[in-house]
Amino acid sequence: MSVNTFGRVFTFTTWGESHGPALGATVDGCPPGVALDEGWIQQFLDRRRPGSSKFTTQRQEADRVRILSGVFEGKTTGTPIQLMIENTDQRSKDYGEIAQAFRPGHADIAYHLKYGIRDYRGGGRSSARETAARVAAGGVAQAVLRDLAPGLKITGYMVQMGELHLDRANFDAAAIDANPFFLPDAAAVPAWEDYLNAIRKAQDSVGAAVEVLVQGCPAGLGAPVYAKLDTDLAAAMMSINAVKGVEIGEGMAAAALTGTANADEIRMGNEGPRFLSNHAGGILGGISTGQDIVVRFAVKPTSSILTPRRTIDRRGEEIELITKGRHDPCVGIRAVPIAEAMAACVVLDHLLLDRAQTGGRRGRIG
Ligand SMILES: Cc1cc2nc3c(=O)[nH]c(=O)nc-3n(C[C@H](O)[C@H](O)[C@H](O)COP(=O)(O)O)c2cc1C
């Protein structure tokens, strides 16, 4: 039984815990001959890295990735790629009381009920430290996509933080990497800063919504029924820590629409079909249409807060708990690069799956 492995053709298996010496990913199924080095993967890890702004945890991890296998003279060899990231700033003393008590909103109680044993240091395997390994695997996927689907671009950004929503009229992709929120609206950044500062001062945390846009995705990725592209994207996003809801395209808002409003009407363009809208989020019948793929997800507020919460300990005693340590006041922020990595892995996996099944054969129109 392999429950730590993602993907069908392009696969990765992550290993490691928050406070172990290292964690990483074993990537398999990567095509040979793709240019890859540690510097390429590092750029993705740097976007996820903790301690990069006052709005993320102050745990200082360099998150330096090492490639231990599968790359020779700067190119992938088609053999397993072992990626390793050392944990350098774990402080077990910050987490001592988690050994005995179950933090509300955390996996402590569920792990205890299931396994009866857990590495409680920093949340062990349930810690979002694990996502560093996925981001590294996503970097490999991005290198392959650069070769196999050169026009494909994956962009993640925040669309909501608590009461604040992105004003889509101001959408500016160039702003995303120039502020600590991955927010595509530079003018709104001061208001977002004030809001999150106030949340933090109140010793609280807040939820968020993140959107991932896949542009330039070829039509034909995905498969009917059990390998739908939207199914796999939803599962990938839902596998990220603290994600509680995923939408494709119109998502839950589709429940309020009529069929007239929701129909993505089709016209013939110069280079094939042209859709007049994109309520479907770029996927019909589980298969990409060539439109932008739009995935959105909700992230719950950080559970570790300095406000006392009621819980129980291992003896069954009812207690109050303050979760000290270094925590992000809004974990949705650092979920952005993780979601991009997961999207890259899903799209590449489906690209390779499609090549294996259809060999690139396509239906023609006109
Ligand atoms: C990038 C990232 C960082 C996170 N950091 C924290 C944190 O500092 N404190 C915390 O309480 N939860 C944090 N979380 C969320 C927990 O890992 C998660 O809520 C917990 O493991 C329980 O899993 P679940 O919420 O998916 O059910 C983080 C999540 C992400 C995506």
Walk me through what this model shows.
- The chain is of the alpha+beta class.
- It has a single domain (about 5-360), classed as Chorismate synthase AroC (Chorismate synthase, AroC fold, 4-Layer Sandwich), CATH 3.60.150.10.
- It is about 25% helix and about 20% strand.
- It contains 7 helices and 18 strands.
- It has helices spanning about 40-50, 110-115, 130-150, 190-200, 230-240, 260, 330-360; strands at about 5, 10-15, 20-30, 65, 70, 75, 80-85, 155-160, 165, 210-215, 245-250, 265-270, 270-275, 285, 285-290, 295-300, 310, 320.
- The strands form 6 sheets. A 5-stranded antiparallel β-sheet has the order 1-2-3-7-4, covered by helices on one side. A 5-stranded antiparallel β-sheet has the order 9-8-10-16-11.
- A hairpin with a 2-residue loop joins strand 8 (about 155-160) and strand 9.
- Helix 1 crosses helix 3 (about 130-150), helix 3 (about 130-150) packs across helix 7 and helix 5 runs antiparallel to helix 7.
- The protein starts with a strand and ends in an 8-residue tail after the last helix.
- The mean pLDDT is about 95.
- The structure holds flavin mononucleotide.
- Flavin mononucleotide binds near residues 106, 126, 131, 242 and 327.
- Belongs to the chorismate synthase family.
- This reaction introduces a second double bond into the aromatic ring system.
- Its EC number is 4.2.3.5.
What does this entry show, briefly?
The protein is an alpha+beta fold and 366 residues long. It has helices spanning 38-48, 108-115, 130-148, 189-201, 229-238, 259-262, 332-358, and strands spanning 5-6, 11-16, 22-28, 65-67, 71-72, 75-76, 81-86, 153-161, 164-165, 208-215, 243-248, 266-269, 272-275, 283-284, 287-288, 293-299, 309-312, 318-321. The strands form six sheets. Strands 1-2-3-7-4 form a five-stranded antiparallel β-sheet, with helices on one face. A five-stranded antiparallel β-sheet has the order 9-8-10-16-11. Strands 5-6 form a two-stranded antiparallel sheet.
